[in-house]
Design goal:
The chain is of the alpha/beta class. The protein folds into 2 domains: 15-264, Carbon-nitrogen hydrolase (Nitrilase/N-carbamoyl-D-aminoacid amidohydrolase, 4-Layer Sandwich); 275-517, Rossmann fold (3-Layer(aba) Sandwich). It has helices at residues 29-45, 70-86, 164-172, 190-205, 267-285, 299-312, 329-342, 352-366, 373-394, 404-409, 430-442, 449-453, 473-485, 490-495, 500-512, 514-517; strands spanning 15-21, 50-52, 91-100, 103-112, 115-121, 145-148, 151-157, 177-182, 209-213, 215-218, 221-224, 228-230, 236-239, 246-253, 256-258, 291-294, 317-321, 345-348, 397-400, 422-423. The strands form 4 sheets. It has a 7-stranded mixed sheet with strand order 5-4-3-2-1-14-15, covered by helices on one side.
């Protein structure tokens, strides 16, 4: 075993490469190895000489602080050796953590002949947005070029090829192909970003490039698959499917990599599939029997219910309508219609008796004070209590229905509509909610048009609409995107022509509601910056933005 250049035999011949775009689970070494073995078997049957798995495929990604445990790394190493024994005549690239004493590396090994033939250590460790790899790993500094089918292949890991140096280093070491294994979390337009950066490496080196990617969900992160390859002269030669496991076979001859080319997806379909993948894997990998959704008759819960039904099957989605005295009859009618159209398990539990009991109990303490938002929030908390009781009794995961616009501004009730175990659309702005609902209906109507067309309302008081408390969503979402996702100062946002008072108001609401967001469940990240791992603002702060 070593790191460096592994010379090829004289001559070369066409090479079949198997791209193992697989979905693994953090810490499930046996299960992950089983998926890799299945990929090896499929590759062997197709006549491939090389199988490539994604970054940290054997351990799952990201392992986070499990990496501090010696037994975690040791169990992974044991499983790696068992994998090597499964592929005596075929080369297999496997991503895994590697421990040497107290030092750990993000590594990839070439398995062949029942042993580890070569090992590579990642040279560039991302430490931004959702990434904190410098917390766990040391950096490598040497290329790894190995032989397969008479061709010299350079092994790199994800962030390495976002910089020119590792690619240039690999070419200098005699590489004929740049191979990059990846676990690159999805966000909107991420594939285009990968094309741009990887295309630059191809142009700089003149070498073909194969990008092998992970697929699946891990807590709030989703990985979209969509592995791809560029010919040495630049054009796309292979494009794997998005959000689907697959073992694709590529032919590498000369400087060309040829394989199947999946058709592109629309932005709405890509986002919808990301949300499906996130909730499906969270439910399946954590072994929940089903999910529970508070179906209000509004657009947010409608979209959440539709995604859950598509991801898990309608028989595993339990919808509960919890009407109050302020619930419009059309809301109840629409909730019933949605449950029918989607085939959901449906229950109605009026909250009036429980709400009245809360008010009666609190009456002495509230004596002399008028009703206000307290009573509105108490209705939401009544619903949250009922949902969590059902969750406790039946084991169903409560999927909350708050969107990013609400998370940003605090337009949500802590321990009420924020209650639950997974916040599916917490990174989906309200304007995008409507786009996704309309797109879903093009596949078959499941959301009544009236739900999409009517003004959104929490229905916690007579005649209430969201715009009583918030700016119009088109304006709100534009300000949130610029302030929160792009880190633009309020003055810069105003300079773009946005109403100054609205900007001040939105920024203020974002600032004062951090305490709520810290208590929100995890949910799928679909933007370059979500309210999760990559949003790290203090709750207690004296800072005030300059406006």
């Amino acid at each position: 075993m070593g790191v460096g250049f592994y010379p090829s035999p004289a001559g070369s011949s066409p090479l079949k490469i198997a791209v193992a775009q697989i979905n693994t689970t953090v810490g499930d070494f046996a299960g992950n190895a089983g998926r890799i073995r299945s990929a090896i078997d499929a590759a062997r049957a197709a006549g491939a000489a090389l199988v490539v798995t994604p970054e940290l495929a054997l351990s799952g990604y990201p392992p986070e602080d499990l990496l501090f445990r010696d037994d975690f790394c040791d169990q992974c190493a044991q499983e790696l050796m068992r994998l090597a024994a499964h592929a005596p005549e075929i080369a297999v690239v496997v991503g895994h953590p590697h421990r040497e004493g107290r030092v750990r590396y993000n590594a990839a090994s070439v398995l062949r002949g029942g042993a580890i033939e070569a090992i590579y250590f990642k040279q560039h460790l991302p430490n931004y947005n959702v990434f904190d790899e410098k917390r766990y790993f040391a950096t490598g500094n040497r290329p790894c070029v190995f032989e397969a089918g008479g061709r010299r292949i350079a092994l790199t890991i994800c962030e390495d090829l976002w910089f020119p140096q590792p690619a240039a280093q690999a070419k200098a070491a005699g590489a004929e192909l740049l191979l990059s294994i990846n676990a690159s979390p999805y966000h909107r337009n991420k594939l285009a970003e990968r094309y741009q950066v990887m295309g630059a490496r191809v142009k700089e080196t003149g070498l073909p490039l194969l990008y092998v990617h992970w697929v699946g969900g891990q807590d709030e992160l989703v990985f979209d698959g969509a592995s791809f390859a560029f010919h040495g002269d630049g054009p796309l030669g292979y494009q794997g499917e998005s959000f689907r496991e697959a073992v694709d076979i590529l032919d590498f001859e000369g400087s060309r990599l040829a394989g199947p080319v999946a058709p592109p997806l629309t932005e709405e379909e890509t986002i919808y599939r990301a949300l499906e993948t996130g909730v499906r894997d969270y439910v399946e990998k954590n072994r929940f029997p089903g999910v529970l959704v508070g179906l209000s008759g509004g657009i947010d819960s409608a979209l959440v219910a539709a995604i859950c039904a598509d991801a898990l099957g309608p028989e595993r989605v339990h919808a509960v309508m919890m009407p109050s005295d302020y619930t419009a009859p059309m809301s109840i009618e629409d909730a019933r219609e949605m449950a029918r159209l989607m085939g959901l398990q449906y229950t109605e539990i009026p909250i009036r008796p429980v709400f009245d009991a809360f008010r009666l109990q609190l009456a002495p303490a509230f004596a002399g004070r008028p009703e206000d938002a307290t009573e509105e929030n108490l209705q939401a908390r009544t619903r949250g209590t009922l949902l969590m009781a059902l969750s406790n009794k039946f084991g169903w995961l409560v999927v909350s229905t708050g969107n990013k616009s609400e998370m940003a501004t605090g337009y949500a009730t802590l321990y009420g509509d924020m209650a639950g175990g997974y916040a599916l659309i917490k990174d989906v702005a309200k304007t995008l909610v409507y786009r996704l609902a309309n797109w879903r209906n093009t596949r078959g109507r499941v959301i009544p048009q009236r739900v999409i067309d009517r003004a959104p309302s929490a229905e916690l008081r007579p005649g209430q609409t969201d715009q009583d408390s918030l700016p119009p969503y088109e304006l709100l979402d534009a300000v949130v995107e610029r302030y929160m996702e792009r880190d633009m100062d309020p003055e810069a946002i105003m300079a773009l022509g946005y109403d100054a008072e609205a900007v001040r108001r939105v920024v203020h609401l974002i600032r004062v509601n951090e305490y709520k967001r810290r208590q929100a469940p995890p949910g799928v990240r679909i933007t370059p910056r979500g309210f999760g791992k990559d949003w790290r603002y203090p709750i207690t702060s004296g800072f005030r933005p300059k406006v």
